Amino acid sequence: MSEKNRIIGVTGGLYTVETPNGDVPARSRGVFRQKGIKPVSGDYVELLYEQDSQAVITDVLHRKNLLIRPPLANLDSVLLVASCKEPSPAFFVLDKLTAIFESKGIETVFVFTKTDLSDPSEYEKIYSAAGYKTFCVNNLDGSGTDGLLSYVSGKTTALIGNTGVGKSSLMNRIFPSAEHKTSQISKKLGRGKHTTREVRFYRLNGGTLIADTPGFSTVEVSRYGDIPSEQLAGCFREFSPYIGKCRFKDCAHIKEESCALRQAVNDGEIPHSRYESYCRLYAEAVERENTYE
Asked: What is the mean pLDDT of residues 14-31?
């Protein structure tokens, strides 16, 4: 068993697997469907070469994390892209995605685009204070991308963001030939760009892999995953200094008396927008849990 074979693309049921001897096309065995497993981009896999030299994926190795949407595995980080204007950041969407990635052990990095249209300092302040690395990129001249390229070097990363935030422009800055390659794939399949849920990694230098993913609408964010109510506070990293200091051990940090976390919000130590997102997510989680009891 080794981690030398890795899926870097899925197109129409055919997998592109990176191996020590170069990229090879591969099919997966039907046994995966029976087990309820589907190999995805980022998976490390075992290969068997049949008599006709066709490579077949026989096993998916242990995943350190998995996203159902977009279908990606073994990510080091996510570049969560938000524009400063047109559209302005939707804090709840950003905070929900951040909590989901946190629950899966995926480092979130915020990239604020369209800085030529609006000052990003307000958004930078919120997420830097929460303990997240932030980058600001001017879509017109590309300023800010050098630091971003340095950060992703050697990592397996995905760009994720709402539709219209300039994610494609950012990807083209980071990896200029990505658009051409994506167009070739789409033309071969007879589909428009990003009309499929399948996701492909692109190689940068130094063992860097970066995936461009389809933009999503606000209503689609629920498909990224859900977090149990009792685990939610632990997915807001700036809450950690206050958890365990409340009057009640089972404090939900919603309306309980002597809540250290709520006091931190009142004292300006935690941004109101982040706390409001937590409360909304907590209410959604409780409603979901009560529905399925």
From this structure: 90
